[in-house]
Amino acid sequence: QVHLVESGGGLVQAGGSLRLSCVASGSVFDIRTMGWYRHTPGRQRALVADITTTGRTNYADSVKGRFTISRENSKDTVYLDMNDLKPDDTAVYYCNAESYDDYQKRYRSLWGQGTLVTVSS
What we know:
Helix content: under 10%
Order of helices and strands: EEEEEEEEEEE
Largest sheet: 7 strands, mixed
Radius of gyration: 14 Å
Shape: elongated
Strand content: over 45%
Number of strands: 11
Number of helices: 0
């Protein structure tokens, strides 16, 4: 079993910064794309940013220029540096990873438990 454990959420004022971290632990064989999604009440969970093993990144338009995703493959860890935060960024942020399941012999999409980010105006 592979588990994703997030940390770094919290309360911050508009214009402030936070860093989210997500570590994959357990029987990790191979992880492909890792990313961050967010969910707010009344909306579907949406991609914030993701990153491949080679470092290719993809961002939602709403966070381009403010958020930066990075990863340390040797540590099975992905980060999300969030700058110039806005009240609209308030959401539960979820880590996602495509992890190889050696038992099922296929890649599976895994989710963390979520971490709340609250941006006050």
